[in-house]
Amino acid sequence: MVLFWKYVAILFKSQMQYRTSFWLLTLGQFLVPFSAFAGLYFMFERFGQIRGWAFDEVALCFAVIHMAFAVSECFARGFDSFSTLVAGGDFDRLLVRPRGTIVQVLGSKFEFSRIGRLVQSTLVLAWAVSRLSAEWSVLKALVLVLMIVSGVFIFSGIFMLAATMCFWTIQGLEIANIFTDGGREMAQYPLNIYKKWVTRFFTFVIPFGCVNYIPLLYILDKGNGNGLMSLLSPLAGIAFIIPCLLVWRLGVRHYRSTGS
Amino acid sequence: MITIQGLNKTFHVAKRNAGVGQAFKSLFRREYTAVEALQDISFSIRPGEIVGYIGPNGAGKSTTIKVMSGILVPDSGTCSIMGYTPWKDRTQYVKNIGVVFGQRSQLWWDVPVLDSFELLRDIYKVPEREYRDNLELLTETLELKEIIQMPVRQLSLGQRMRCEIAASLLHSPSLLFLDEPTIGLDAVSKIAVRRFIRTINEEKGVTVILTTHDMNDIEALAQRIILIGKGRLLFDGGIDRIRSRFGTHKTLTVVYRHHAQPLKVPGAELLSWSPERAVWRIDTASLNISEVLLQLSGRVELLDVEIESQPIEEMIVQLYKEHQI
Amino acid sequence: MRAYLSVFKLRLNLGMQYRTAAVAGCATQFFWGFLIIMVFEAFYSHASGTPPISLKQLISYVWLQQAFLAFIMLWFRDNELFQLITSGNIAYELCRPSGLYGLWFAKLLAQRLSSAILRSLPILAVALFLPEPYRMPLPHDWLAFLLFGAALLIGLLMIVSLSMLMYISVFVTLSPSGSLLMFGVLGEFLAGMIIPVPLMPDWLQQIVYVLPFRWTADFPFRVYSGHIPLQEAVAGIGIQLLWLMGLLWLGKSAMTKVLRKVVVQGG
User: Fold this and answer.
1) What predicted TM-score, i.e. pTM, was given to this entire model?
2) Within 10 A of B145 (CB to CB), how many other CB atoms are there?
3) Which residues does chain C have within 8 Å of residue B23's beta carbon, measured at their own beta carbons?
4) For residue range B113-149, what is the model confidence (pLDDT) as tens digits?
5) ipTM > 0.95 (yes/no)
6) Which DSSP letter does residue C221 get?
7) Minimal Cα distance from B22: which residue of C?
8) Which residue, B11, B92, B107, B300, has fewest beta-carbon neighbours within 10 Å?
9) Looking at beta carbons, which residues of chain A come within 8 Å of B118?
10) Smallest CA–CA distance from B106 into chain A, residue
11) What gap in Å lies between CA A245 and CA C133, rounded to an integer?
12) Crossing angle of helices A227-239/A138-165, nearest 10°?
């Protein structure tokens, strides 16, 4: 963990070498989800609600997911750009060092400009929280934080899975976007607006439902969501990282036996 | 130090065929060709040796290096380096080795070299004192003082390579793999790098395994050569052994006062000729040089004579030819 | 002209080689299509009053958007060109006897075409046979379909000339990512890529209609679905052509200006 922060420090120094570009990129990163949010706003202005969810409620959902996405893109970016690491042969370099591969890959890249995205989603979150009529409690706040943390783990897990694919092929990686970008777009609405099969897939296979639906019901006092259940479900989301780690280790082993 | 026994490694390379239909087919079923990268490679290396590991492109050099540095797992065979099996005890083992890939960088591009060094210190968990001592020694012997505060992107290739080598020695490894350390360097930098490798080998007793295509590197550094071709070990022995095998060939260059006809010397191969100068290759096993000179002096007025051994480069080429690789 | 053609051909061939990428891309786009349609469906299911565009028309809008993504994305980055500019290797290109504008135009056009050819047909073919409500409707009528084709192609030329402007701006800023990202995001929003133009509030529609972006995506798609009537479509194609000429002129003169500066600075 100490090592990870050292990596962060050195990468921060690197990126500060290009200051203007950094600020422009940060601003751009601020605008990307902003345009998505504007789209959301205009849709609600036209239609008023979506399957019984009001704008403020969806905005909360949107903020949580985008925040989780921004954080994991910021930190786990090394996995996202992993194909260049493998294709360039620089992964060999990581293997001759006496540290675990995961921390080194995480440390290989760190996208500070994603702060822009993070700021944007924080603003939306604050705005949504202030507008919601639901009553807040310590437990609810805890659930909210857990939702974000859990989201970070899920996105990081997906990044990791996509990176593992690079050990076998570096073509067709675009498909991983379904789960990263696609997952983000999908999970910005409460899951129950979708068809059953989508909802099921994104609850039981990739547990976005654990992040944005079950706990959301509780926070918004909707349905019969109870505290314990909604506290546990983000934890289930966090557990998603475990199989991802196992798959990653499998991938490293494969790499070391084929050398591709 | 290193004992390698019967190392084998086969790669399966997917065949790629042209055409849309083929490409579609390959989505489901692929055909593979087996490439035998290593076949029954065995050798052992003692502590403190500098070994030149050579062979043409694609011979299996980097595969061996990858196995020895713990990156790649071989299909069969054993490898024991300092008591470790590289691919089994990777994280423990790699603390003891340094690796320089000549074509790739381990330094961070945009930050001063020193920052990269400090990160490496943390990665390898080098104690502060040891780090200070090593850094001091390295900056001195590699003359890094002026460049250590500069970002890597502003360094010349020679400066960068010096930093790369320093970076892989910060944790005082006892075994150093150098993969083409002099590639692309100018003559001055090459000599500096060679001198340094010699120094750390002599003073710190670091064992060095060196792959290169530059035979001058080998000549300057290695006491021993391991030649590999098409995945097989072809030669393992001292440079002297190669010399004594191919070293009977000498080149004789003679400068003389104007002489119109080509000079023929029986038994010697005329390489080039002009009215003032002629070059022969002579196999000293069958023809005595002094006899040739005697013979020549009777026919022309000799102005200058030069006798050279065959360069090591050509000996290696002959070795390659002999093994048809 | 021959030079432009061969650059075009080379790029096209190169792009066609990435078949696996294309398969993966199709799958991704299908997912997106489904997702977006589901969201719209959810919105429409409880809509009060009649929305300005029917769900059916919207669905064809979405599928066309997915199929021709390569035609309409403003942000279709060609790293080779960026590197050429930022690394200063542009000098090589300047040595060539053909006009830089034309060469790059051909290159970018071919890149988009090769990517779209591999993706659009499979996506459309499948989308036409999907179960309801996801099935893509057939064109409104055949005339509309022809007009759609024309509008799409002119739109493609427009988008390439727009992205040429982006590349030219890199000459000035030398930092590709930041400013272009903003330009791209804004342009795509105004082209109706995030939400369809008819669903935008009126004041925003007013803005969108005076800018060039919507002509590249929104316009041809609505011609297809019949949301824009035939007469209006013909007039629209006229406007598209005007825009195209304007953009080409702008790009060419900007290029000449910028290149002169580059040469003066010594590259």
Assistant:
1) 0.80
2) 9
3) 19-20
4) 888 888 888 888 889 999 999 999 889 888 888 888 8
5) no
6) H
7) C19
8) B92
9) 6
10) A93
11) 39
12) 20
